[in-house]
Amino acid sequence: MKRWVAKxxxxxxxxxxxxxxxxxxMGRHSRDRPSVERIGxxxxxxxxxxxxxxxxxxxxxxxxxxxxxxxYSNPLDIGFERDIDPTIIDEKANHAPVSQTLNSWAFEPxxxxxxxxxxxxxxxxxxxxxxxxxxxxxxxxxxxxxxWVVLYEHQSKTEKYDGDRIGEHGSRMQxxxxxxxxxxxxxxxxxxxxxxxxQEKIDIMHWAISDVTxxxxxxxxxxxxxxxxxxxxxxxxxxxxxVGYAQxxxxxxxxxxxxxxxxxxxxxxxxxxxxxxxxxxxxDRAHAGVWxxxxxxxxxxxFKGEEGGTVFLLRMDKAAEVVGGEYTFLTVLISExxxxxxxxxxxxxxxxxxxxxxxxxxxxxxxxxxxxxxxGACQ
Length: 379
What we know:
The chain folds into two domains: 2-72, no CATH class; 104-378, no CATH class. It is 15% helix and 30% strand. The protein has five helices and 16 strands. It starts with a helix and ends with a strand.
């Protein structure tokens, strides 16, 4: 194969005489991608692409562990061959700006840290339970009175000690919260909540929101099968056996080391492909994080806020259209309040609050719990 690729590169027209200055950088052994590629290497990439195309046109793919061979389906079948995403037209695409005075409704209630004297800092985490407001946290109302459901939120505030680094890391206090929403059968919601309550340790990462990293292209969603088209998933470790759930959103990531044109990489939350198709949505190319229906109305919105905060919202009337009478949204919460007197871990204290909420025929239902740690010991 290597010889075929090399020969094909010559067939494309590469010669030493034509590209006499096309030389590798001698003595350079870094694994990082160079900012300027050799022309000969470009020709070899062309040849490799042609070879893979010929092979996939004429041969089946070898099956993975204990699975049968299969016909080629999409570029992800042949492993990691994609290094740039050409569908990211403008990495600086404008997300609607958010602050506590502009589009503040998207993150309300905002996390704000109290002014706390040093002698009271170690007890500060236990002065409030962030889960007490879980019944209302999954819902937001914009400035026009339109109601939205939170599909995903991360919000955080951290205060550090002034001046030079103090202690091990210099952090003084912090509060954060994660919210993530999935769709389940209403008849299963209580059973799911009881399973979470029995475990008393929720891990929502890679469960409620899947990461799609350096794989499917951004604007291949939702039409191409590089994006998972599955609606119902089953997770017998976190949920009761046989109980399914549907993810409402996915997190697209393209890492910076793959594309020199994206020094900070690129990431965005998207509606799950099945949901995009059911609601017949399309991406607004002029406004990042916005998806519209066929009446040109905004149905999904992503806002990026302070300190890396993100919230992704689904309009309430469309949410009701999706769940109908058989299903409901189930939202999980993880929140912590942390204090590090002296900027180190020797006197650390924190409260971790978790919970689950859902709506049934009788209204909103909530189940919450918390764990307190002080100086490394449970309270």
